[in-house]
Design goal:
Blueprint lengths: L5 H9 L3 H8 L3 H8 L7 H11 L15
Helix pairs in contact: 2-3
């Protein structure tokens, strides 16, 4: 089972639409959708802007590493 996409989860928790995030970042909604579907990954700069917009720690947008496997 694939890990849940953290951007998608946090957007849902905060009740923020892809459209709102796209407008804030000056990106297309399709780009946000690709990020939420793990078809593409945002840059570190975009992750920082997302964290600022959502008022969260940037680390919340990342799945923790599990090196025990």
């Amino acid at each position: 089972m694939a890990d849940l996409n953290r951007i998608k989860v946090i957007l849902a928790e905060k009740k923020v639409s892809n459209k709102s995030l796209a407008e804030h970042l000056d990106k297309r909604e399709e780009t946000i959708s690709r990020w939420c579907q793990n078809k593409q990954q945002p840059s570190i700069e975009d992750l920082n802007k997302i964290a600022e917009f959502l008022i969260i720690d940037i680390r919340s947008l990342l799945n923790p590493s599990d090196w025990s496997k």
